[in-house]
Amino acid sequence: MKRNERIGAIIKILSSNPNKIFTLNFFTDKFDSAKSSISEDIVIAKRIMENMKLGKIETLSGAAGGVKYIPCVSKEDTKLLMDELCSKLKDENRILAGGFLYTSDIMFNSSIIKRAGEVFATQFSHKNADYVVTVETKGIPLAVMTADALNLPLVVARRDSKVSEGSTVSINYISGSTDRIQKMSMSKRAVKQGSRAIVIDDFMKGGGTARGIVDILTEFEIEVVGIGVLISTKKPEKKLVEDYISLIFIDEVDSENKKIQVYPNNNL
Amino acid sequence: MKRNERIGAIIKILSSNPNKIFTLNFFTDKFDSAKSSISEDIVIAKRIMENMKLGKIETLSGAAGGVKYIPCVSKEDTKLLMDELCSKLKDENRILAGGFLYTSDIMFNSSIIKRAGEVFATQFSHKNADYVVTVETKGIPLAVMTADALNLPLVVARRDSKVSEGSTVSINYISGSTDRIQKMSMSKRAVKQGSRAIVIDDFMKGGGTARGIVDILTEFEIEVVGIGVLISTKKPEKKLVEDYISLIFIDEVDSENKKIQVYPNNNL
Questions:
Q1: Is B144–A147 a contact, with Cβ atoms under 8 angstroms apart?
Q2: For testing the chain B interface, which of A1, A6, A11, A12 should be mutated: the one with the most B CBs within 10 Å?
Q3: Are residues B127 and B28 in the same domain?
Q4: How far apart are CA A59 and CA A43, in angstroms?
Q5: Do B160 and B63 have their domain in common?
Q6: Same domain, A86 and A118
Q7: What count of Cα atoms within 13 Å lies in the side-chain half-sphere of residue B160?
Q8: Are A41 and A109 part of one and the same domain?
Q9: Please, which residues bridge with residue A69 across strands?
Q10: Which of A117, A214, B70, B96 is packed most tightly, with the most Cβ within 10 A?
Q11: Cβ contact (<8 Å) for B155 and A4?
Q12: Of B8, B102, B189, which is closest to A11 when you measure between CB atoms?
């Protein structure tokens, strides 16, 4: 195999498996090449990714050593994604009865959501989390894409406890968007006590649902080390959780004049 | 930029955006290179992917022409995935009360589910579908990964109609695993009449849920052109839908002797 063939294959394999460590031996076996050649290939692959701002390739030394790809979305690409989201969200046809916005087409658009998941992975990569946690339903694609980018297991809290979840822990919480008491349950098999979690959801208004996830994780003595939502409302300014990252803010939905005011998170 | 740098970047960009067409101009602009050089790069990238069985790169001529990456899981890699799934599923600790199996850790493992989604994309790539459709909850990660690999929008039917879905169509169906009447609803905004859909779900026993999805899609005059499930039970042999693809079959769950019999789909 020629050098450029090996480099192409290395980049494909690493970037399809974010944050998964591959040993040098894996590639020497796969390509039937010397360790020294593979090492040079990796140096070049690393430079390509960095120059093109396509993420990072990191080499780890030691017994558990090897090489891995870390998704890392540049500021420019984050801005592009947020601008695309804002322009989609401004569409007046999204306005539903009661001032709600239809967003399922965005939340279930894998191409958008995959990039958003990589943005959260970029923001939370240093948090040493053990899980990505969400509650059903609309946040699941975003959470699974974030989990994939971080190479972490996804945990999905359910609205009802299901027989297929085994024994569960349940809590009641108040959802901000409906102001009603809701139930959330989590399988005991899904998580380990004393671990760390990143919470991901599609939408935050009062923060009640995110607070509910934090509370149910507290029952398992799990620390929440980051909260990310795709969209949050500007009001109420005080949410039931602190320190969350929102990609997009909704300022106002004016049903009468059919105007939706949204803006991107300029801190990202 | 050197050739091997361009090839590496082309492979990363294409494979991160399955089934999305990129024009040659996109790459000539990005790399500030001549069209002839990029064309040669693509020929090499194509050969790398084919030789290494990492998927296909296809060039399309004409006005809407360009180049795209098509995920294509080899028979060997499909077998590896199915064997990994079987060995995970055989774990006796999965047995829950009533002979149910705990599978959430698998269904929410993005690395496994991404590969399974690519297997379904490989199987259904020629079906010219417009949507991937599932019903909440556990099949969503698999469906979103399939949708991503096929570059199709995902549509998620809900158990209840939500205010955030706008006007919906609802049906009642009988779930095979619980034998109870359940409700399923789909947003009118999510789909267009006369289109084609691939149905994806995590698990099939009697096929009642899949039948429900087919029925609700019929209300929208949408043709189901493929059904894929990760796991199905051997019994009942006659399901309520025909022509489905299952990666794994469960033959028997013997709660008393703690034995689970599973086997892979040898036709894939």
A1: no
A2: A12
A3: no
A4: 9
A5: no
A6: yes
A7: 7
A8: no
A9: A57
A10: A117
A11: no
A12: B8
d(Cα A11, Cα A27) in Å, to the nearest integer? 11
Between chains, do A140 and B144 touch, taking CB under 8 Å as contact? Answer: yes
Number of structural domains in chain A: 2
Confirm if A28 and A41 have CB atoms less than 8 A apart.
no
CATH number at residue B52: 1.10.10.10
User: In a mutagenesis test of the A interface, which of B1, B3, B4 is the best target, namely the one with the most A β-carbons within 10 Å?
Assistant: B4
What is the 3-state composition of chain A as percent helix, strand, coil, each rounded to the nearest 5? Answer: 40, 30, 30
Q: In terms of domains, do A87 and A198 share one?
A: yes
The per-residue pLDDT string of chain A (268 residues; one tens digit each, 9 = 90 and over) reads: 889 999 999 999 999 999 999 999 999 999 999 999 999 999 999 999 999 999 999 999 988 789 999 999 999 999 999 999 999 999 999 999 888 999 999 999 999 999 999 999 999 999 999 999 999 999 999 999 999 999 999 999 999 888 899 999 999 998 866 678 999 999 999 999 999 999 999 999 999 999 999 999 999 999 999 999 999 999 999 999 999 999 999 998 999 999 999 999 999 9
* Closest CA–CA distance from residue A15 to any residue of chain B (Å): 7
For the purposes of burial, counting CB atoms within 10 Å of the CB of B199, is it exposed (0-12), middle (13-18) or buried (19 or more)?
A: buried
CATH of the domain at B106: 3.40.50.2020
Dihedral angle computed from the Cα positions of residues B252, B255, B259 and B265, in that order, rounded to the nearest 10 degrees? 30
A255 and A227 in one domain?
yes
Pairing of strands B131-135, B196-204: parallel
Residue with tokens 């010219």: B128
Whether residue B140 and residue A145 make contact (CB cut-off 8 A), yes or no, is no
Give the one of B20, B141, B155 whose C-beta lies nearest to A154's C-beta: B141
Identify the domain containing residue A58 by its residue range.
3-70
Q: At what angle do helices B35-51 and B24-31 cross, to 10 degrees?
A: 110
| End position of a domain, from candidates A51, A70, A89 | A70
* Residue where a domain stops, chosen among B26, B45, B70: B70
Residues B84 and B16 in one domain: no
Considering CB atoms only, which of B8, B54, B113 is closest to A45? B8
Which amino acid is present at B197? A
Rounded to two decimals, what is the model's pTM?
A: 0.97
Q: Which DSSP string do the residues of B124-183 spell out, in sequence order?
A: HGGG--SEEEEETTTTHHHHHHHHHHHT--EEEEBSS--GGG-SEEEEEEE-TTT-SEEE
Q: What angle do CA A59, B72, A35 make, to 5 degrees?
A: 30
Which residues of A are less than 8 Å from B13 in CB distance? Answer: 54
Contacts of A223 (CB under 8 A, 6+ apart): A195, A196, A197, A217
Inter-chain residue contact B144 with A145, CB threshold 8 Å: yes
The answer to whether the CB atoms of B137 and A137 lie below 8 A apart is yes
The answer to whether the CB of A33 falls within 8 A of the CB of A2 is no
Residues B98 and B183 in one domain: yes
Helix (H, G, I), strand (E, B) or coil at A102: coil
Contact between B109 and A153 using a beta-carbon 8 Å cutoff: yes
